């Protein structure tokens, strides 16, 4: 009996999912255990064993791998609770991380904040001045040595950093991705002068041109590397002690995982892992349902997240912004595009009704929670419109107050605008949905895609209450609300269902086309690096796949476009084809006639992605089929559509539904972790996995 | 040679014209869309908010499209571009968050085109007009090429969309089109008044050739033209879809209301502020190479109730040189400060905001020049200086209000430090590029915190500096350093943000060297003043070192980190200079920080100590200017500080101990 | 009602403008720095931020003009301008009735 397990440690909850090769599944959730999250990790394993009816030792002995996702790297960077890092760089260029290409003042901020320019600031410096040293050395754009490495000066600098309290050292020298000799030598000198220090070289962490992001990435990697190493080593030792013979894998933001022995040296790649579990889960769901293109939306209490799956693969980005710093981390491209159920509805100085971006968060929360919130939120409106059942929220665990919600709406919105409470609530609902549709459309369109080619998945506590409306505006083919057995621990399921994903890249900027031999040699080098790293994972793979791409641009443009490249070596004609492919992709993204090949092409960075497919793929559990029409549990008045106003809607209890059941709107489905709103003109069908699939029959 | 007025240039001397007057002039030549007041009155809050939000998304999409498609580093990195949606008469309803100076001139160009091109050649669906004549509008100098397109719905001209971006070279005596020796506009790129470059959806090859023929880098300029076409197309698609969904009358009603809303919110904020008048001055040194004059722009801002009057009486007459700006530049100088400091929380709908603003300015002055005055540098010369003086005036107005003073800044980096390189690159191709490192100027101090170090430029809320490596890949150069410069931020109780410097050599060019054009004032006097006892930011400092030892230094394993170490002959450059940088020459350019706020002797000593550790302030300045003498390990000595500050209070006011006793 | 004009100045209902650091009367609504002590010195006296002598670049003399509270000597205003230009940096706020 071979098991795979996914454990997702969030700030508040630890989710766990186990599946056996034969199809047995177990899912559980427990509060997280800061500051030592490993306690929660170990105790949730015990819970899984109990659910499966076996002993802890049996479970661990039979588990091939455990995939571990955690927010701790991200949290550490956000809170600043990180190792003390010393930074070594080329003389004359320490200013790079302070200047931040100036965009650090506003990176990651919404347009409302950018517009309020006087109130913007750069973040805290990554490294204080006493922990930075510059070295006499220089490599040029061709990789030639211009100034030899001053070894004596370097030794002195290392000693000074250690004396100043450095627990780890990050090294980033100009053009090291072209010629890493100096960085490697510095690494050796550090090993001699301070053997126990954690060291990261930018040529290992991020061999990509543009020194500011490369240095920031290397430094942040160094800030969290030691902690991750000190967390994983004892955890793995404890697991072995308890009988675990498999691999401990760590989830990365790229949508794949990596062995725990490999993770600390590339700790920065784990920062997105709390989001990627969900995206991977979404990809597996899409496979199971036969959907090639999916818009994945996740609307919780505080945030609204959107990501894309195209042709069965999550859309990824090669950069991200954290604490206003630019990082070279391949990430599944998840956009935080607004507030969630806690978004506050308010009236601005022009007496216009606005929704968000401010949020009531968890504290004080929506007015209807009765926890001290006085401002009306989207959740208050959902309650007033009859969508949420105040007695059946979170399975009845939390009682909500309609009076408090109505009071908040009356005081802050209806009164000042001269509207009834109902009309004000209906307006907020519609504005939230229209805004969401706008923002989701922007995500889709700026990827060069058309929403009409997509199916939309709606996750989260608040998403399904709105998805039928905001998706209608996008004209997607259908909407899927995951509600089956795995829905509550979807990200942990995603972890268990993930594969090993490794990325190798190297910047080698040149005019395009480069000589064919150089081009093929670059990819051969990346391929060989990945083969070595895959072997080092010490796992058995069902199959191994590679994908090549090249970041290309028209001469002197700002950003490159990642262009697909074949996995076999190419000839001159093949190179030409790649250039044409760039041109086509470019026009798809930016419009017909926008490309202009006569300006010349340049190739900046080579990249290869390797996927080691793990042999056990947990299946999503099916639910029982049902006969006849589903019976509503009750009827109540709801307001789901401005054109139709208040209507009597069938209210269904999710536990009464079976595969094949069809529901016609206006209707509401109450499930343990969420509520689904079906306006008139929608039909919801329960599929074999227990999801509710929504289609539009009329406009 | 005196500037000789050119007959007929009055036709191009554009001033904003009211919607009523515009409609009267256009008459039947073009059917202009309109909407009934009743539709505006009946707009429900839901529809208004949804459509308004979508209009904002459209300008964002236009801006993103421009950035991604452009090949011009000035666009992609300096954000020297903007995009706007305008109504049928050209009033700007929504402008992007890019170069806010440019928000002030797109309307003028669209409106002029309506009044002068409605017949011969006429304005129809699928047409796009190109303009880089700053007397007409569209941009502030010839490098700013605007492309604006009428959107027709139901046979009526419903709206205009526009995209404007700085092109790196459009001819003229000096590469980069800033002819540092210019006496008038005929030394520069010849302005093109609005011309129909796209007709019924197709580029007109004859007009495109005429446009590109004047540039040293026509292929890059052509790429940008397509970027602007693309941006307008994107906007038209979105707006058409919006009108299909909500109806053209509703969308237009929303546009009208956005303008009214912006106007009424600005008026409401103005009423909260005390009435008064605030006057100030901004200077510029040197109008062209060889010129050693200093020129002033004076502004008196008066606020009564909800109206602002900017009176530029006392401003110097226009000069022989490239630093004048047109009326569009004057408007463009006011707009950035108005938007960022007064309208930070108000929609950026200039069409509505301008209703609260009256401008008094005499044609023939340096920031309202007549044709054919030289304007090659207008956007960063007199328009920028106008921004500086308006910054001080508006800051004075905001400072009197306990809440609104949060959003004032002292003058930011006083000017654009222009350094243009041209020659042959490492790969054998010709190149012309403006170095955009000086985007990282210091921002002005605030009433509650220091200015942001290397935070950017006042007129550009976003912006980027290219990485050193990217510049070294793209151009034949090698940097000795790029770093923040201590003492460049204006001292004050709150310190102005520091500026920075770049120091580089020509490297790996087949020609051995590169051509260099420099134009950066602020050398005879600093251009970013301080407020409320804050001191001005540092002066501009550009130094060229000839015949240095830098290659020998490299060979011996050292990278020089001060100018002194480089040897050779030092040339401190004047404001405008054009020369060639040879293989053993080094160029150092040090751009400006932001002005300070409040008396430096009132700055928290711990903050000064932290400044010194972080290399924002030198020990000398800490002692001499802030009165904080630090211990050898950089800590505050309270007794010494108190003594030093007492002494400085006297000496800087020209008093001795004895005289102070007499006063007491 | 107290009206703070800036970091150093306060305007009172009777139109008087005083120093916020020491309450010294400095002027009135129309002429806020009327009684300020004004000095004019070489620009380089401001500190290291003036990198070169102005005479290198301009023919007209340039000065640093500073205005101080006559009592506590707080720096109220500073400008670096051509010597032959009288100060135009004025403000006047209307007095609330």
Q: What does this molecule look like?
A:
- With 699 residues, chain A is of the alpha+beta class.
- Chain A contains 17 helices and 35 strands.
- In chain A, strands 13, 14, 15, 20, 23, 24, 31, 34 and 35 form a nine-stranded mixed beta sheet that branches.
- The longest helix of chain A has 31 residues, at 211-241.
- Chain A is globular and about 80 Å long.
- The mean pLDDT of chain A is 90.
- With 664 residues, chain B is an alpha+beta fold.
- Chain B is built from 17 helices and 20 strands.
- In chain B, the strands form four sheets. In chain B, strands 2-1-5-4-3-6-7 form a seven-stranded antiparallel beta sheet, sandwiched between helices. A five-stranded antiparallel beta sheet of chain B has the order 14-15-20-17-18.
- In chain B, helix 3 packs across helix 8 (248-272), helix 7 crosses helix 8 (248-272) and helix 9 (327-342) packs parallel to helix 11 (382-399).
- The longest helix of chain B is centred in the middle third of the chain and has 29 residues, at 218-246.
- Chain C has 97 residues and is mainly β.
- Chain C is built from no helices and eight strands.
- The chains are: A alpha+beta (699), B alpha+beta (664), C mainly beta (97).
- Strand 8 (276-285) of chain B pairs antiparallel with strand 8 (90-93) of chain C, so a sheet runs across the interface.
Quick recap of the structure?
The complex is a heterotrimer of chains A (699), B (664) and C (97). Chain A is an alpha+beta fold and 699 residues long.
Indicate the topology.
The complex is a heterotrimer of chains A (699), B (664) and C (97).
Chain A lengths: L2 E7 L3 E8 L4 E7 L5 H16 L3 H7 E8 L1 H8 L5 E6 L5 H4 L11 H5 L16 E4 L2 E2 L5 E3 L3 H13 L4 E5 L8 H13 L4 E4 H4 L5 H31 L5 E5 L5 E3 L13 H17 L4 E6 L3 E8 L2 E2 L1 E2 L2 E3 L2 E3 L3 E2 L2 E5 L3 E5 L5 E7 L18 H7 L17 H16 L3 H25 L9 E5 L3 H12 L4 E3 L8 H7 L3 E13 L3 H21 L6 E12 L6 E5 L6 H19 L10 E13 L20 E6 L6 E8 L8 E3 L2 E4 L4 E4 L3 E5 L5 E5 L3
Parallel strand pairs in A: 1-4, 4-11, 5-6, 5-9, 9-10, 13-23, 23-24, 30-32
Antiparallel strand pairs in A: 1-2, 2-3, 7-8, 11-12, 13-14, 14-15, 14-20, 16-19, 17-18, 21-22, 24-35, 25-28, 26-27, 26-28, 29-30, 31-34, 32-33, 34-35
Helix pairs in contact in A: 6-7, 10-15, 11-12, 11-13, 12-13, 13-14
Chain B lengths: L18 H8 L10 H5 L3 H25 L3 H4 L4 E7 L4 E4 L10 H17 L5 E4 L12 E10 L2 E11 L28 E5 L2 E2 L1 H8 L5 H29 L1 H25 L3 E10 L8 E11 L2 E5 L15 H16 L7 H4 L3 E4 L21 H18 L18 E7 L5 E5 L33 H7 L2 E8 L15 E7 L7 E6 L21 E6 L3 H6 L13 E4 L3 E6 L4 E5 L14 H9 L5 H6 L13 H15 L4 H7 L1
Parallel strand pairs in B: 10-11
Antiparallel strand pairs in B: 1-2, 1-5, 3-4, 3-6, 4-5, 6-7, 8-9, 9-10, 12-13, 12-16, 14-15, 15-20, 16-19, 17-18, 17-20
Chain C lengths: L2 E2 L4 E3 L4 E4 L5 E4 L8 E5 L20 E7 L6 E8 L7 E4 L4
Antiparallel strand pairs in C: 1-2, 2-3, 3-4, 5-6, 6-7
């Amino acid at each position: 009996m071979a098991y795979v397990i996914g454990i997702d440690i969030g700030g508040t909850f630890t989710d766990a999912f186990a599946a056996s090769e034969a199809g047995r599944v177990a899912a559980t959730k427990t509060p997280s255990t800061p500051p030592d999250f490993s306690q929660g990790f170990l105790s949730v394993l015990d819970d899984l064993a109990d659910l499966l009816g076996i002993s802890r030792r049996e479970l661990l002995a039979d588990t091939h791998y455990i995939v571990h996702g955690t927010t701790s790297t991200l949290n550490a960077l956000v809170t600043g609770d990180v190792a003390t890092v010393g930074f070594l760089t080329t003389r004359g260029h320490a200013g790079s991380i302070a200047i931040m290409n100036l965009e650090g003042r506003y990176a990651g901020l919404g347009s409302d904040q950018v517009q309020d320019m006087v109130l913007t600031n750069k973040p805290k410096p990554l490294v204080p001045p006493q922990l930075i040293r510059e070295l006499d050395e220089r490599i040029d754009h061709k990789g030639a040595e211009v100034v030899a490495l001053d070894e004596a000066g370097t030794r002195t600098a290392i000693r000074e950093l250690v004396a100043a309290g450095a627990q780890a050292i990050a090294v980033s020298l100009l053009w090291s991705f072209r010629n890493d000799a100096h960085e490697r030598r510095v690494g050796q000198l550090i090993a001699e002068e301070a053997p126990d220090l954690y060291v990261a070289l930018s040529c290992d962490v991020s061999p990509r041109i543009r020194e500011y992001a490369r240095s920031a990435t290397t430094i942040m990697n160094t800030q969290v590397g030691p902690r991750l190493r000190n967390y994983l080593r004892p955890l793995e030792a404890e697991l072995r002690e308890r009988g675990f013979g498999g691999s401990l894998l760590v989830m990365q933001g790229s949508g794949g995982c990596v062995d725990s022995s490999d993770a600390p040296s590339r700790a920065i790649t784990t920062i997105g892992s709390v989001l990627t579990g969900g995206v991977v889960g979404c990809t597996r769901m899409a496979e199971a349902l036969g959907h090639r293109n999916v818009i994945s939306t996740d609307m919780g209490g505080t945030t609204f997240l959107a990501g894309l799956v195209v042709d069965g693969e999550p859309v990824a980005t090669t950069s991200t912004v954290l604490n206003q710093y630019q990082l070279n981390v391949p990430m599944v491209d998840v956009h935080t595009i607004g507030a969630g159920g806690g978004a506050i509805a308010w009236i601005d100085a022009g007496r216009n009704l606005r929704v968000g971006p401010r949020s009531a968060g968890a504290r004080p929360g929506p007015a209807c929670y009765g926890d001290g919130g006085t401002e009306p939120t989207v959740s208050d409106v959902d309650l007033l419109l009859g969508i949420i059942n105040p007695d059946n929220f979170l399975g009845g665990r939390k009682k909500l107050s309609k009076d408090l919600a109505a009071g908040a709406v009356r005081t802050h919105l209806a009164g000042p605008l001269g509207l009834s409470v109902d009309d004000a609530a209906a307006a907020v609902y519609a504005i939230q949905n229209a805004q969401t549709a706008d923002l989701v459309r922007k995500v889709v369109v700026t990827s060069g895609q058309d929403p009409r080619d997509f199916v939309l998945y709606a996750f989260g506590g608040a998403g399904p209450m709105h998805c039928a409306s905001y998706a209608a505006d996008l004209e997607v083919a259908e909407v899927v609300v995951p509600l089956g057995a795995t829905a509550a621990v979807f990200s942990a399921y995603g972890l268990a269902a993930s594969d090993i994903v490794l990325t190798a890249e190297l910047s080698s900027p040149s005019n395009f086309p480069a000589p064919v031999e150089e081009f093929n040699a670059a990819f051969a080098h990346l391929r060989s690096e990945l083969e070595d790293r895959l072997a080092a994972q010490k796992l058995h793979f069902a199959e191994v796949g590679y994908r090549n791409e090249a970041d290309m641009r028209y001469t002197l443009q700002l950003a490159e476009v990642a262009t697909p490249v074949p996995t076999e070596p190419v000839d001159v004609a093949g190179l030409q084809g790649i250039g044409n492919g760039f041109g086509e992709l470019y026009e798809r993204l930016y419009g017909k006639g926008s490309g202009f090949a006569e300006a010349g092409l340049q190739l900046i960075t080579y990249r290869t992605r390797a996927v080691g497919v793990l042999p056990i793929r947990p299946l999503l559990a099916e639910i029982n089929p049902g006969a006849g029409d589903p019976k509503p549990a009750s009827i109540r008045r709801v307001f789901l559509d401005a054109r139709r106003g208040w209507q009597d809607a069938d209210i269904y209890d999710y536990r009464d539904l079976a595969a094949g059941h069809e529901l016609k709107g206006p209707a509401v489905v109450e499930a343990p972790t969420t509520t689904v709103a079906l306006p008139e003109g929608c039909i919801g069908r329960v599929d074999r996995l227990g999801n509710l699939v929504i289609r539009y029959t009329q406009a | 040679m005196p500037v000789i007025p050119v007959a007929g240039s009055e036709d191009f001397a554009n001033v904003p014209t009211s919607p009523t007057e515009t409609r009267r002039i256009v008459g039947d030549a073009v059917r202009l869309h309109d909407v009934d007041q009743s539709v505006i009155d009946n707009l429900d809050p839901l529809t208004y908010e949804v459509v308004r939000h979508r209009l904002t998304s459209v300008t964002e999409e236009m801006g993103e499209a421009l950035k991604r498609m452009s090949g011009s580093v000035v666009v992609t990195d300096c954000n020297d571009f903007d995009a706007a949606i305008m109504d049928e008469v050209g009033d700007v309803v929504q402008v992007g968050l890019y170069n806010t100076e440019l928000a002030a001139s797109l309307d003028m160009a669209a409106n002029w085109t309506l009044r002068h091109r409605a017949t011969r050649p006429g304005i129809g669906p699928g047409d796009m007009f190109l303009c880089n004549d700053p007397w007409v509008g569209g941009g502030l100098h010839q490098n700013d090429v605007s492309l604006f397109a009428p959107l027709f719905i139901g046979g009526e001209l419903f709206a205009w969309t526009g995209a404007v971006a700085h092109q790196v070279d459009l001819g003229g005596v000096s590469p980069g089109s800033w002819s540092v020796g210019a006496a008038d506009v005929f030394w520069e790129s010849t302005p093109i008044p609005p011309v129909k470059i796209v007709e019924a959806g197709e580029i007109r090859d004859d007009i495109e050739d005429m446009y590109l023929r004047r540039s040293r880098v026509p292929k890059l300029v052509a790429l940008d033209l397509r970027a602007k076409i693309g941006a307008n197309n994107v906007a038209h698609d979105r707006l058409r879809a919006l009108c299909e969904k909500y109806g053209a009358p509703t969308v237009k009603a929303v546009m009208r209301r956005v303008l009214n809303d912006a106007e009424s919110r600005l008026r409401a904020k103005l009423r909260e502020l005390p009435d008064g008048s605030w006057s100030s001055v901004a200077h510029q040194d040197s109008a062209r190479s060889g010129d050693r004059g200093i020129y002033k722009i004076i502004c008196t801002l008066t606020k009564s109730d909800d109206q602002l009057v900017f009176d530029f009486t006392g401003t110097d007459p226009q000069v022989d040189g490239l630093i004048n700006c047109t009326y569009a530049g004057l408007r463009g100088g006011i707009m950035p400060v108005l938007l960022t400091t007064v309208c930070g929380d108000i929609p950026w709908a200039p069409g509505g905001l301008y209703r609260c603003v009256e401008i008094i300015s005499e044609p023939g002055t340096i920031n309202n020049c007549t044709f054919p005055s030289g304007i090659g540098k207008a956007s960063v010369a007199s328009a920028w200086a106008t921004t500086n003086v308006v910054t001080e005036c508006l800051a004075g107005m905001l400072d009197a209000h306990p809440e609104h003073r949060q959003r004032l800044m002292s003058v930011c980096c006083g000017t654009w430090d222009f350094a243009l390189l041209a020659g042959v690159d490492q790969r054998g191709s010709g190149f012309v590029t403006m170095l955009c490192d000086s985007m990282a100027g210091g921002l002005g101090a605030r009433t509650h915190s220091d200015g942001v170090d290397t935070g950017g430029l006042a007129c550009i809320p976003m912006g980027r500096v290219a990485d050193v490596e990217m510049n070294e890949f793209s151009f034949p150069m090698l940097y000795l350093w790029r770093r923040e410069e201590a003492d460049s931020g204006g001292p004050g109780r709150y310190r102005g943000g520091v500026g920075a410097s770049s120091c580089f050599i020509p490297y790996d060019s087949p020609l051995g060297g590169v051509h260099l054009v420099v134009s950066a004032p602020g050398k005879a006097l600093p251009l970013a003043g301080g407020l409320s006892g804050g001191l001005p930011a540092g002066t501009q400092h550009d130094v060229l070192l000839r015949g240095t030892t830098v290659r020998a230094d490299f060979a011996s394993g050292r990278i020089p980190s001060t100018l002194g170490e480089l040897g050779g002959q030092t040339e401190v450059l004047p404001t405008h200079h054009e020369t060639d940088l040879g293989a053993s020459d080094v160029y150092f350019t040090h751009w400006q920080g932001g002005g300070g706020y409040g008396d430096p002797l009132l700055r928290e000593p711990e903050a000064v100590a932290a400044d010194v550790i972080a290399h924002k302030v030198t020990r000398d300045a800490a002692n001499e200017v802030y009165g904080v003498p630090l211990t050898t390990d950089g800590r505050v000595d309270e007794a010494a500080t108190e003594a030093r500050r007492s002494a400085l209070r006297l000496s800087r006011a020209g008093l001795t101990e004895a005289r102070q006793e007499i006063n007491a | 009602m107290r009206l703070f004009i800036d970091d150093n100045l306060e305007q009172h209902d009777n139109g008087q403008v005083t120093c916020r650091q020491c309450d010294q009367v400095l002027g009135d609504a129309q002429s806020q720095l009327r009684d300020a002590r004004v000095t004019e010195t070489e620009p380089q006296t401001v500190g290291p931020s003036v990198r070169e002598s102005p005479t290198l670049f301009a023919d007209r003399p340039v000065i640093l003009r500073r205005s101080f509270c006559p009592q506590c000597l707080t720096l109220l205003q500073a400008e670096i301008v051509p010597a032959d230009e009288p100060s135009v940096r004025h403000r006047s706020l209307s007095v609330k009735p």
